[in-house]
Design a protein that fits this description.
By secondary structure, the chain is of the alpha/beta class. It is built from ten helices and 15 strands. InterPro entries: Gfo/Idh/MocA-like_OxRdtase_N, Gfo/Idh/MocA_Oxidoreductases, GFO_IDH_MocA-like_dom, NAD(P)-bd_dom_sf.
């Protein structure tokens, strides 16, 4: 069988630790092109995979043999590169946040529709085993009505993860557009929408830059969100959690409490109000920590969708809805009021 030929645009840490090894481990894929403004980064991977290296993504997109593009660039380039790739009739897997505005997100969705190619946004939280299990539990009705939630995604910041350390584009508003809210918070808006099975309609938020010097983006945010059925809860996104990473979610429901990734030994715990409990050890959640680079399942799902001509779990429309919550949170902070989503 002819393999799907992949080009990676942006050869920093997310490509190095997630996209490239997961493509390389997929028997249906051949990595054929790498692009980065730092030529040495692209050349390193090109040499390793017997591929071509580029510093100009437009030159890469001219290559007819390339079937798929992974967009792993700074956030401000996600939309323009994704749109150009779709217009060149390439399937696209784009890192999050998918865009810097609703207008850009709409343009990406339109480009995918007009090209007939697949657009997927790399939200990996839906694929975490505890989260998949939680969705089925909520759907089963065992917890009864969901009243509230709290979720957090925080660590010490991208400087320990990014290829450029403390000089990373993550801290530059012009290139990043958004900080911890876009890096981490958008993952949790996507997860909550997926688990609750409904959309958020209102947001209120405090979004601050307090922990990182020489940063022009947010590094600490707390949001209050409300769904269409009236479920309310909090979402925290932070680069100021200078200890163990927090990637937990808790649901407070009619029949008990469900805790996800909130215990080191059990990834899903349910404490029922009748005194019974469940504890599930379902495997470690994906982490940036050294030695925890397990598969996100994102690339596997993306390639399967291309092979089977099926719609990705996180398509452009889904990515746009998750982005909208983050944009509303920013708007709320600026206006100092609750805003509709």
């Amino acid at each position: 069988m002819t393999k799907i030929k992949v080009g990676v645009i942006g050869c920093g840490s997310i490509a190095k630790y997630r996209h490239i090894p997961e493509y390389a481990g997929n028997e249906n894929v051949e990595l054929v092109a790498f692009c980065d403004i730092v030529l040495e980064r692209a050349q390193k991977f090109a040499h390793e995979y017997n591929a071509k290296a580029y510093t100009n993504y437009k030159e890469l997109l001219k290559q007819e043999e390339v079937d798929v593009i992974s967009v792993c660039t700074p956030n401000a380039l996600h939309a323009p590169i994704s749109i150009a790739a779709l217009e060149a009739f390439k399937h696209v897997l784009c890192e999050k946040p998918m865009a810097t505005s609703a207008e850009e997100a709409d343009a990406m969705v339109a480009a995918a529709e007009s090209s007939g190619k697949t657009l997927m946004i790399a939200h990996n939280q839906r694929f975490v085993p505890s989260h998949s299990k939680a969705r089925s539990i909520i759907e089963s009705g065992n917890l009864g009505k969901i009243y509230s939630f709290r979720t957090a995604f925080g660590h010490g910041g991208p400087e320990s993860w990014s290829a450029d350390g403390s000089n990373s584009w993550f801290f530059d508003k012009k290139r990043a557009f958004i900080g911890a809210m876009g890096d981490l918070g958008v993952h949790k808006t996507d997860l909550l929408r997926y688990l609750l099975g409904e959309e958020f309609v209102e947001a209120a938020a405090f979004v601050e830059t307090s922990a990182k010097q020489n940063s022009t983006v947010d590094d600490n945010a707390v949001c209050i969100l409300k769904t269409e059925s009236g479920i309310i809860g909090t979402l925290a996104a932070s680069w100021a959690y200078n200890g163990t990473e927090d990637n937990s979610t808790v649901f407070y429901a009619e029949n008990g409490i469900m805790r996800l990734e909130d215990d080191p030994d059990y990834s899903l715990i349910i404490e029922y109000k009748n005194g019974n409990s469940e504890r599930h050890s379902l495997g470690a959640i994906q982490s940036n920590a050294e030695g925890k680079q397990t598969s996100t399942q994102v690339i596997e799902h993306f390639i399967d969708c291309i092979l089977n001509d099926s719609e990705p779990l996180v398509n452009g429309e889904e990515g746009k809805k998750s982005l909208a919550v983050i944009l509303a949170a920013l708007d709320s902070h600026e206006k100092k009021q609750i805003v509709p989503i």
